Amino acid sequence: MQRWRGLEDIPEDWGRSVVTIGSYDGVHRGHQVIISRTVARARELGVPAVVVTFDPHPSEVVRPGSHPPLLAPHHRRAELMAGLGVDAVLILPFTAEFSRLSPGDFVVKVLVDKLHARLVVEGPNFRFGHKAAGNVDFLKELGTTYDYEVEVVDLYQRGAAGGGEPFSSTLVRRLVAEGDVTGATEVLGRPHRVEGVVVRGAQRGRELGFPTANLETLPHTAIPADGVYAGWLTAEGEAMPAAISVGTNPQFDGTERTVEAYAIDRVGLDLYGLHVEVDFLAYLRGQETFSSIEALLERMADDVKRARELVEAAGSPEAAFRADDGR
Question: Could you say which protein family the record assigns here (predicted)?
Fold first, then answer.
């Protein structure tokens, strides 16, 4: 899959293509329906499938300081999109100047002059251009002038049979913030992941017999609510069952919020300096303080036991979610 950073990276001889545009943070199941439809139509037409996205998130430029928590960094999004069959991802640097492009200028500069769009696939709520003034109706209107078609894909819904809410990155962020990682998994189609480099912490876990990998997470990462979780710690391609702690460690009067993962039944791991991933399978309990170190150790042993059982039942991060999403 080709990855372009800015319009200047697009090859000069690039031909027609099928395009979809959006932030696509998390590449959740709703996104997957739109992207998969983009790929399917591209295959039918015999042209490449292209996803256009933005960095930083547009809200950070339009309303500085309002950057939403990120569900997946761009390299992870590209990896997920490649798995869906996308041929190229274009990351557009979203600057103040770019934000002032009118919807018409956006279409000409991006879709017409550079990507030579034959078809654009979007959800019904797609907005674009200065002050989000453009919508799918305007996109269709311009298509008659610039020789491209527009296909609108219905939004996927959570609990649709009961009149549920549309899948969205906002929904996933709320579920993650509430610690409902099971609900987040339902919308994402896989466990929520947090990435970062392993750094040295207070090393209390090592002293207590439960050495943890302390993550220095990526900026703006969506971190689950404080508590203890079951999941996986992946280092150098190996996914290891893990008990994960998120919070300030009030037992020892901590003040800094951290993400720490204990690789269950693994001895002698040296992960310092490695970039690792932590996937959240299930919430076990909230943050607590205990009357003694002995009581803490007893609860930690129980957390590890429950985490081990849940992870063994799930099998792997890839197998943790099974559902027919209608695709």
Answer: Belongs to the ribF family.
In contact, 184 and 41? CB cutoff 8 Å? no
For 268: left if phi > 0, alpha if psi spans -120 to 50, otherwise beta; the answer is: left
pLDDT in tens, 182-226: 999 999 999 999 999 999 876 666 667 788 999 999 989 999 999
189 SS3 class:
coil
Same domain, 146 and 229: no
Number of H-type helices and E-type strands within the chain: 10, 12
In a 10 Å sphere around its CB, with 0-12 CB exposed, 13-18 middle and 19+ buried, how is residue 163 labelled? exposed
Rounded CA gap, 93 and 322, in Å? 35
Q: How many CB atoms lie within 10 A of CB 33?
A: 20
Q: Where in the sequence is the domain holding 202, given as residue range(s)?
A: 192-314
Domains in the chain: how many in total? 2
Same domain, residue pair 242 and 128: no
Which residues share a beta bridge with 240?
233
Beta strands in the chain (DSSP E): 2-5, 17-21, 49-55, 88-93, 117-122, 149-152, 192-199, 213-217, 227-235, 238-247, 258-263, 275-285
Dihedral sign (CA 225, 160, 54, 6)? positive
The whole-angstrom separation of Cα 284 and Cα 281 is 10
pLDDT digits (tens, 9 = 90+) for 51-110: 999 998 888 777 877 788 999 999 999 999 999 999 999 999 998 899 999 999 999 999
